[in-house]
Amino acid sequence: MKMYTTKTKFHCGIDLHKSMSYICVMDKEGKIYVHTEIKNNDFQYMKKILSPYWDDLTIACETTYNWYKLSDFCETEPVQFALGHALYMGAIHGGKAKNDKIDSKKITDLLRTNLLPKAYACPRRFRSHRDLLRRRIKLVSIRSGISIYLNLFEDQNNLKHSSAELRRNAKSSLQFMDLQTFLPEDHAMARNYQLNADLLKMFTDQLKQIDKDLVKFTLDSQFKEDFEIVKSMKGIGDILGMTLVYETHDIQRFKTPGDYASYCRVVKCKKESAGKSYGYSGTKMGNPNLKWAFGEIAMLAKSDPVMKFFADELDQRHGKRKGRSIFMHKICRAIYFMLLRKKPFDPIDFFGREKYERLTKKVH
């Protein structure tokens, strides 16, 4: 976990809530200048209070659900903004007494002492596409649940099975009803079946349109080049490519491939003390969407015979679980250098010339 390094004279910690906030302003030595409540989250009023310190101020808050509006306000004004990782701000959660006034002071203390666990605050102009893509992934999960329920419902009630093709490409939900024959007394069963068929059709149509819109947005944006670069690797299609591009955003913010791999959650961090190992920690540090994406890529990349042979070798040498982790890590490092160097996937760079020639000979 990296800590935010502040460079300003004054520091403002905000305990942000839905309808109010509590702010605390301190200097580097810990002297308190302002410690008050901001009703209705009136940030213009907050700026008026903080005006004596505004030109040399850093504002920080936790990653609560509503940090967007504070971040946008700081970007507009402008003033330095730092986002703290809520899960790892233990100083806030560990006190005997806890209230908004105390929390705002603790956030300020973490900020001024350079101990604020840093989370990434994505700029406003890039957030909307990323959030739409995240919502799309959630809706796919819901649609899959409806499709599975429909299949189980057919089995449970001895109905004809709707094909996977029909569930993907039905022109109307009535096609599901035409497939079945319900008895007159089974009107509730028929209504249940129709309800789920209607929901499945609605979700399917919306997701198809969202996919088209997302691809169009990406091709019309500054991410077009990165999108085409990551798609050059076997196993990466439109959705996984957009996930990598939007969740990474700017590869330059990662100094090393190890930093990127850690952010993507494809490496584990050991807990050690006095020469003893106590397992692993930090499993929730990083980006869960990138972890999911690299897990999917590791499976889909095996459609390439050389990749599959290499992955199978890792499984034989290290076991399936560790072999898959090593494979994911190698793919992650490859994506890092592809985005950094603006170069498409090259199997010789990925494997090394000697290993690539050996694997190619074995495959053929």
Automatic annotation (TrEMBL):
Residues in Transposase IS116/IS110/IS902 C-terminal domain copies: 228-302
Residues covered by the Transposase IS110-like N-terminal domain: 12-143
Gene Ontology biological process: DNA transposition
Pfam families, A to Z: DEDD_Tnp_IS110, Transposase_20
InterPro entries per the UniProt record, alphabetical: Transp_IS110-like_N (IPR002525), Transpos_IS110 (IPR047650), Transposase_20 (IPR003346)
GO-annotated molecular function: DNA binding; transposase activity
Protein name: ISGsu4, transposase
Organism from which the protein derives: Lentisphaera araneosa HTCC2155
